[in-house]
Amino acid sequence: MAPKNKENTSGNKKKRQISEEEDDEDYRRRRDRNNQAVKRSRVKSKLRTQQTLERVNQLKTENELLEEKIKMLTKELGFLKDLFLAHAGSSQHSVNFQDVDLNALLAEDTKSVEQMKDTPKS
């Protein structure tokens, strides 16, 4: 085996030092890019979660309003059925439906639905 030349050895150390410094800088750049990507990913995730929660709350409110509307329409349907049966059952009796004010009977239910729309949900 040939003896090592001192100049070659010292030259290799300099190359290794430069290479290690470049590796450190490259590593630092990669870490910084990765850290930025992680931050962006976390922000997007939080935004998606917040949007989902807002949508859930919106749908809950809409569902409550629709349930109230169902109750009101069910009540109206029952009333109209009773009215129809009363009319059909009293063919001998003269029932004057012009005197019945449906709007006044249903106004109370309509007001409660409108109030629910105006009240903010928590």
UniProtKB/TrEMBL annotation:
GO molecular function: DNA-binding transcription factor activity, RNA polymerase II-specific; RNA polymerase II cis-regulatory region sequence-specific DNA binding
GO cellular component terms, A-Z: nucleus
Domain of life the protein comes from: Eukaryota
Coiled-coil stretches noted in the UniProt entry, renumbered to this chain: 49-83
A Gene Ontology BP annotation from the UniProt entry: DNA-templated transcription
Region Disordered, annotated ranges: 1-49
Alphabetically ordered keywords of this record: Coiled coil, DNA-binding, Nucleus, Transcription, Transcription regulation
Database matches in Pfam families: bZIP_2
Localization (cell): Nucleus
Keyword match Transit peptide: no
SUPFAM superfamilies (alphabetical): Leucine zipper domain (SSF57959)
Keyword Zinc-finger tagged: no
Similarity section: Belongs to the bZIP family. C/EBP subfamily.
Protein name: BZIP domain-containing protein
